[in-house]
Write a structure and sequence with these properties.
By secondary structure, the chain is mainly beta. The protein is built from one helix and 15 strands, in the order E-E-E-E-E-E-E-E-E-H-E-E-E-E-E-E. Strands 8-7-6-5-4-3-2-1-15-14-13-12-11-10-9 form a 15-stranded mixed beta sheet, covered by helices on one side. Strand 12 and strand 13 form a beta hairpin. The longest helix is centred in the middle third of the chain and has 10 residues. It is globular, with a radius of gyration of 16 Å.
């Protein structure tokens, strides 16, 4: 069960946004990721709880950020309920999309589990509902994902298999690279892996 800490920052001006303390695990029915976020001042600022089924679909999502909360799941596309800080104006949403995304590294892992790309495959288009901080406002985004290469890196134990993905935002054409090993993001825009207590899990 990997456990560690990511630092999150603005990918444009590198302003520190939060530390995300996480643990995740592969199980017989899928994958679960749980994290707590702390602000640069050290205060609790949110949490992520995401469960995928064996096909990579989000069967349970719960996000908290600055008193806002979102609960969602894959149902006729994706469906969610977003609750405001007072709890009086809950709003429901449903979009014909494949999955969710957001600032947490968990969503990058989730997208790769859903797409199951191989280095020889062509780029695959995916529609996601993104929840943007700090109020978890939903918006629909279209991306293209391609697995550029898969490399084995020697370690003291088994070789570490690292996948390099190219992600393209289809509305702007902006491209970036994501490096993932198992169920841990090694590097991505706005994300740095600062600490890892155990090796990444290997998906079956």
């Amino acid at each position: 069960m990997p456990r560690g800490r990511y630092s999150l920052h603005d990918p444009h001006d590198h302003t520190s946004l939060a530390d995300e303390h996480f643990h995740c695990a592969v199980g017989p029915s899928g994958w679960r990721y749980v994290s707590q976020l702390t602000s640069p001042a050290g205060e609790h600022s949110g949490s992520v709880d995401l469960t995928l089924d064996e096909l990579g679909r989000p069967i349970r999502l719960e996000l908290h950020a600055t008193s806002w909360q979102v609960r969602g799941a894959a149902l006729d596309g994706v469906t969610w309920v977003r609750t405001d800080p007072t709890g009086t104006h809950a709003t429901e949403g449903s979009v014909r999309a494949h999955a969710f995304t957001g600032t947490s590294p968990a969503f990058l892992i989730a997208t790769t589990r859903l797409l199951r790309l191989t280095p020889s495959s062509t780029a695959t288009r995916v529609r996601l509902v993104a929840f943007t901080d700090p109020v978890l406002a939903p918006r629909t985004v279209d991306q293209s994902w391609a697995l550029l290469k898969r490399e084995a890196h020697a370690t003291d134990n088994a070789p570490l298999i690292v996948d390099e993905y190219q992600v393209t935002a289809l509305d702007t054409g902006e491209q970036h690279t994501v490096h993932i090993a198992g169920d841990v993001v090694l590097a991505a825009p706005g994300i740095e892996l600062e600490d890892l207590e155990s090796p990444p899990s290997v998906f079956p």
